[in-house]
Design goal:
195 residues; alpha/beta; Rossmann fold; binds guanosine-5'-triphosphate; binds magnesium ion
């Protein structure tokens, strides 16, 4: 498990992010998918990342230093319908520049709300990562909100959508920040990459 996580800094520009001298893992997804909750659950610290029932809370590139060994990055959510077109564009620019330029970025975890049908903007983002050859893994969130059967069929539906574009599926995880399910698997995956 994560022993110690501390907030480092927030930036709008990837060039101002901390020195890229440790491996880094980013978390991104549609607004309200549960990124901040997942980060807090991983770190076992409810106050680390700001969570909110109002979508669009995370507007900056937020760096957290974990066990003084790796950086965890909370990125602004994409596809928040109520944000103005201009601010959506700015968030997108900020994240896409960061994702394409950050040299120590090992993997981007794309969070998907397991309750929803495959969403266009999620698939577009995943396919964009594929085009840019950015390594990703998928984290299905909020598993506590559905029955096992519904989870299985939603995940199968999502995988089917991905396989229309991808020959091979990226690694996938199923989590609940409320029940703390699936967190150890993510940390193991990260550990496997950095050690
Ligand atoms: P933005 O920063 O606004 O883009 O959102 P976010 O993706 O960081 O989402 P956040 O963690 O703030 O969670 C959004 C809402 O979903 C909050 O009301 C959370 O309590 C709820 N939530 C997050 N994860 C879970 C989960 O695993 N289970 C349940 N039941 N609710 C969750
Ligand atoms: Mg957030």
């Amino acid at each position: 498990m994560i022993i110690q996580a501390e907030f480092q800094c927030s930036n709008t520009d990837w060039k101002k992010c901390p020195k890229a001298d440790l491996p880094e893992f980013a978390f991104i997804g549609r607004s309200n998918v549960g990124k901040s909750s997942l980060i807090n659950a991983l770190a076992n610290n409810k106050k680390l990342a700001k969570t909110s029932s109002t979508p669009g809370k995370t507007r900056l590139i937020n760096h957290f230093l974990v066990d003084k060994r790796w950086f965890l990055v909370d990125l602004p959510g994409y596809g928040y319908a109520k944000a103005s077109k201009k601010s959506r564009h700015i968030w997108g620019e900020m994240s896409s520049k960061y994702l394409q330029n950050r040299e120590n970025l090992m993997c981007t975890f794309v969070l998907i709300d397991v309750r929803l049908e495959p969403q266009k903007n999620d698939l577009e983002f995943i396919n964009w990562c594929g085009e840019k050859q950015l390594p990703i893994a998928i984290i299905f969130t909020k598993s506590d909100k559905l029955k096992a059967g519904e989870i299985q069929s939603n995940i199968a539906g999502f995988e089917k959508s991905l396989l229309e574009y991808w020959e091979e599926l990226p690694p996938r995880f199923l989590t609940s920040s409320v029940k703390k399910n699936g967190l150890a698997e993510i940390l193991e995956y990260i550990n496997g990459i950095i050690s």
